[in-house]
Amino acid sequence: MIINGVEIDDTFAEAFPMKATRVIITAQTAQWAYNSAKSMTGFATSVIGCGCEADIERVLDPSETPDGRPGVSAMLFTMGGKGLRKQLEIRAGQSVLTSPTSALFSGIDGGKTIPLGKNLRYFGDGFQTSKVINDNRYWRIPVMDGEFLVEENTSMVDAIGGGNLLILAESEVEALEACEKAVESMRKIPNVILPFPGGVVRSGSKVGSKYPSLSASTNNAFCPTLKGVTKTELSPEIESVMEIVVDGLTEDDIKKAMREGMKTFCSIGAYNGIKRISAGNYGGKLGPFHFHLQEIMQ
Amino acid sequence: MIINGVEIDDTFAEAFPMKATRVIITAQTAQWAYNSAKSMTGFATSVIGCGCEADIERVLDPSETPDGRPGVSAMLFTMGGKGLRKQLEIRAGQSVLTSPTSALFSGIDGGKTIPLGKNLRYFGDGFQTSKVINDNRYWRIPVMDGEFLVEENTSMVDAIGGGNLLILAESEVEALEACEKAVESMRKIPNVILPFPGGVVRSGSKVGSKYPSLSASTNNAFCPTLKGVTKTELSPEIESVMEIVVDGLTEDDIKKAMREGMKTFCSIGAYNGIKRISAGNYGGKLGPFHFHLQEIMQ
Amino acid sequence: MIINGVEIDDTFAEAFPMKATRVIITAQTAQWAYNSAKSMTGFATSVIGCGCEADIERVLDPSETPDGRPGVSAMLFTMGGKGLRKQLEIRAGQSVLTSPTSALFSGIDGGKTIPLGKNLRYFGDGFQTSKVINDNRYWRIPVMDGEFLVEENTSMVDAIGGGNLLILAESEVEALEACEKAVESMRKIPNVILPFPGGVVRSGSKVGSKYPSLSASTNNAFCPTLKGVTKTELSPEIESVMEIVVDGLTEDDIKKAMREGMKTFCSIGAYNGIKRISAGNYGGKLGPFHFHLQEIMQ
Amino acid sequence: MIINGVEIDDTFAEAFPMKATRVIITAQTAQWAYNSAKSMTGFATSVIGCGCEADIERVLDPSETPDGRPGVSAMLFTMGGKGLRKQLEIRAGQSVLTSPTSALFSGIDGGKTIPLGKNLRYFGDGFQTSKVINDNRYWRIPVMDGEFLVEENTSMVDAIGGGNLLILAESEVEALEACEKAVESMRKIPNVILPFPGGVVRSGSKVGSKYPSLSASTNNAFCPTLKGVTKTELSPEIESVMEIVVDGLTEDDIKKAMREGMKTFCSIGAYNGIKRISAGNYGGKLGPFHFHLQEIMQ
Predict the structure, then answer these.
(1) C-beta separation of A151 from A104 below 8 A
(2) How far is D8 from chain A (nearest CA, A)?
(3) What is the pLDDT of residues B236-286, one digit of tens each?
(4) Which residues of A touch B205 (CB under 8 A)?
(5) Quick check: C12 and C291 in contact, CB under 8 A?
(6) Single pTM value for the model
(7) For C262-277, what is each residue's pLDDT tens digit?
(8) Among all residues of chain D, which has the CA nearest to that of A271?
């Protein structure tokens, strides 16, 4: 399939089941809600190294938040429920409880109930109080700037991690600028996050390594500087490859985000150095979710 | 001591020895260097919960970076050398190696040599190469967007954590706006970071809790909503207290930052609701570094 | 009267009757509406040199504009009705008719009807069409990007020009930064404009000159560099004086804006170099509107 | 000629001799230099209606200005020398002399000497002083904020007005976004200005009108809404046409700017709705400068 000169490979992104939750952080100003959420979702590019994959999902208008203040929604993804509980609690405690004027709410229904402020409340040293509104319990924890308001619980739902797009370009500059635009458009889709810095990852890996202790290593077949040295997947004009990884709540959410990304890359076009779109998979045997690029673009 | 109506307490901030390092992250654009550094230093507000305290120190002009590209300097602080090695390696691997167009350099001399790219290089699966320039070894690791250039080692130095200012204000709004300005001025001082979200923390704690399993809990004597309920350190007009925590390389660095912060608060003045500046300590018995507020302002 | 150390003179700003109108410029994006309005209200600092005094009044939300698009409101002030008609027509023709995707509407009721698109429509060369909605006629003029929609008429109302504040400071830097903040707060008041660049003027003038052909010249009594050379109104510590001129629809509008400005200057305070607030007048014999500073601040 | 699907007409832009000057405005901050320059070059889209065509040329680094402060360069174009002298003097007097902390310098050599501060100096009422540095005289005029420093003279040079590009697109949105990008790239070329709001004009005109008193009227052959009503130059898929007008010091300057604009339009491409690039001319009989689109792109 070729759109505006861009070849879209007949392949698929292979993705995996994850657990996810969404929280809403509000504050006196949008900037302070953002500060808190950015800290809470920092250092969270991959579950293996960071314990979770997390990012700000989007900025919320005061009309969209439980307390009518500016806010942001943030999502966390892990491989299992135990990890999610642990990451949510420690990150909320370190980056939201601490952050001036912040409040913290559940941002998702359905699924399984997990603690949000349930354990954080003990920081109040017995001075904390609670109130039930519409069947949800909220805790008011006295802190130096006033009170930290936090909902007792949130929900954990089934989710999917590892949707991805590989973009093959004639130069690093063209790849980078195209990815900036694609990330901007993909982040407008609800229910997804792009967990890597700026939404893009350039260190694609293969399973295994010549060093026995390492389980993964650079994906040499996609490294442009190794074209003469190793078996390559890259044609001669490709000088840079970047990847966008997408975690989302449902298959449909990830499809929408991947479609937005591909549309952006195609709109930029081969004339501007974007030659080919591919995706990463493991032959389809490991992950149960297969996102076929050409199907998504039909 | 009273300046522009603001009372400065005759007290001191009590601080502790830490270990620290500084790295320089560069990229094709300032935004991408920032993306990578923000991820690497995210979720790093306190050593206990996050493994380290970290933040972007400042944005660097291309003329200040080893490779002449836009960059940022980031600093990490831990309680000991083992933790610093571990945090540096995992955070560099997850947030810099992965980040498009990034390169990673040591940003500090002296002290003890610790690995920067030394172990990350194995990601190259044998395709990595190295070069020694001016006695420093650099690794070139093939990645999908081209190469990840990383210096083999950086340095770990003695440092100080826990410098702090408490600001007591007539309202939360006034405290927050004053802190924004103080943080902006304090972040211009080199060799220091303010590890909390936006540089400010509002959940000051005391040692101990009524719950035996918790070692710390809300500092009720400084909670304005508890004035009628508990023994308070707050006079009637104080409705909000916020804290700025400072980690720095030397006593002098922390003093300079605290002085900038206090100058900013005094310039805002009692007329605008900033009534008093204090500091947190444990009676002087735990931490060897004592930063006396009134001395710093002389 | 002294507030936060700032002396407010027992004097008044002397202002004059003017004619004014308001128009609403909309476009596909807020930026393009702003581009058009900024051009239309450019080079309009004083009626004598520029033909009118004009500025953007404020940015409008799509929900506030006649066609539901992003927009800005702009106001023009002149000494008389003839000048206003002329300036409105030529400026709308040069800066709004020409500007991509723009539409132009009346932004004021009452007063006297004056042409807005009434004559501009002939640019359509007979291809223009019109429609009456709610008793107002609108013209659709074919242009290259589609159509220029313009309301036939707007209104001209009585207004007031020459409200002003003089700010006396210890340094140019402190005066400038204080004026930036005051302008920001004054521009939030509806029905007023601050016609000078950035809202501030530093070339205050007196009537008359040693050169017979000039009717006005520098107000030497307020020039800090002339303190030793001429009779001065400045005490020794004053090193810089700036002025904010306000045109508004009613006395009350101008009072509100002057009050906001004075509140901002007082909040900055004498500690930050803002020593005194005064106002310009001609002894009260020329302009019928007298805005007494101390009354406004009561 | 077709590039990335965009048809470039075999035609030319017809341009005219003008007179031009360049000045440099500096101030304490880049924003205040910009405020002054934006006022000075406001309402200056066409010589006929506004007396001159003017715009900010570019923002200057402190290292590029005569007094080492932040600055901007601005250019004014008129049909003849008398108009240029008049416009320069009145605009400098109203928008730069008045603007806090500003200074004003010549930004061009060669050509004919014309007054810059030579007459403005009389505002100083005899208190002005002068100094000659490197054969240039500078005036120091006492004003309320300190001093207005202004160079006595600047230069007037031969220049060219009316270079232009017509962009034909499938929709108004696509035309507008493409023009934003083209304007951004064209404004990086030195020695040119794009005098219309945001750099774009949509009210292209033809000579003459059905109304005898009007010498120009809408260019109906390029109006998409008139395709069925009048003889058209537009093919069925064209729904919006916009124009970028370029004034420059030399033919080469205008060629470079037109080339940058065309490159940007072609890079966006037919896939994104940019179908055709043309240019406005009067059959080549009126203006001596002919800018052939296809030649420029070779």
Answers:
(1) yes
(2) 16
(3) 999 999 999 999 999 999 999 999 999 999 999 999 999 999 999 999 988
(4) 123
(5) yes
(6) 0.94
(7) 999 999 999 999 999 9
(8) D4
